Amino acid sequence: YATLYIVSTPLGNLEDMTFRAVRILNEVDLIAAEDTRHSKKLLGHYGITTPTIACHEHNETQSAQDLIQRLENGTTIALISDAGTPLISDPGYRLVSQAGEKGIPIVPVPGCNAAITGLSASGLPTDSFIFLGFPPKKQGRLDNFLNDAAHHKATLIFYESPRRVIRLISSAITAFGDRQACLARELTKQYEEFIRGPLSLILSTLGARATIKGECVLFIKGADEQSVDLSLDQIEAMIMDGLNQN
Ligand code: SAM
């Protein structure tokens, strides 16, 4: 069998590509990309001319089968996503699990990841953390999801779109109280920003802005013995305060 490489790419800053990643992408027979048009920019920047094929969420089952067959026939393949580490809230799980079952060699080529990059500068405890990925979009499911996470002592990590981040933070205040947190926005890019402090402060900072742009990771300190139990009225007032800043 040929080798399947899982290659991390930058989060936005093209200088964050590793020498090894460039070499592997040059050497493989085929690059399976989440979005071939998006990846053209990255590959063009490094002068990589290896052929690409699409492997996105919507065709993952079919494309995994196709890629496994190619690996069995001796084609070396590198999997990349639009940003960061493939499979981390990105496509590739089916491909890697099937390749593992078949005994196809799988070699990760490490690099960027938004959760770890942001965590390292968040100022929150790093000895233990839980990556929760994208929370559910529906309010009821989101509330259950957060309530389930409320007892964890480890730092919690969420990915969220800028359109939904205010709602995530206000729902988190309801579920957890006003814990210490950090919002990392636009990591590695020109307008990189960290907002550190209690959730209510992050909420009011964002609430004061006309629009929230850019990709976000939210870090929330885990449960501890000293955490204050707020009354529902206090929580409501805090959320309203944050939102009324607009
Ligand atoms: N595979 C990627 C990784 O290793 O981090 C994550 C891909 S996921 C589809 C995209 C989410 O990752 C965004 O919604 C955001 O939460 C986070 N993200 C990606 N790039 C980011 C950046 N430059 N700054 C902050 N968050 C980022």
- Low-pLDDT parts are none
Largest sheet: 5 strands, parallel
- The structure class reads alpha/beta
Amount of beta strand: 15-25%
Helix content percent band: 25-40%
Order of strands in the sheet with most strands = 3-2-4-1-5
Tell me the Rg in angstroms.
20 Å
Question: How many helices does DSSP assign?
Answer: 9
How many distinct beta strands?
10
Average pLDDT figure: 94
> Could you spell the SSE succession in H and E letters?
EHEHEHEHEHEHEHEEHEH
Q: In angstroms, what separates the terminal alpha carbons?
A: 58 Å
Overall form? elongated
Small-molecule components bound: S-adenosylmethionine
Pfam families: TP_methylase (PF00590)
EC number: 2.1.1.198
Catalytic activity: cytidine(1402) in 16S rRNA + S-adenosyl-L-methionine = 2'-O-methylcytidine(1402) in 16S rRNA + S-adenosyl-L-homocysteine + H(+)
GO molecular function, one term: rRNA (cytosine-2'-O-)-methyltransferase activity
Can you describe what's shown?
With 246 residues, this protein is of the alpha/beta class. 39% of the residues lie in helices and 18% in strands. The chain is built from 9 helices and 10 strands. It has helices at 19-27, 36-45, 60-72, 93-102, 114-122, 139-149, 165-176, 199-207, 232-244, and strands spanning 4-7, 30-33, 52-54, 77-80, 106-109, 129-131, 155-160, 180-185, 193-198, 216-220. β8 (180-185) and β9 (193-198) form a beta hairpin. The longest helix is centred in the N-terminal third of the chain and has 13 residues, at 60-72. The chain is elongated, with a radius of gyration of 20 Å. S-adenosylmethionine is lined by residues 11-12, 81, 83-85, 88-90, 113-115, 159-161, 184-189, 215-217.
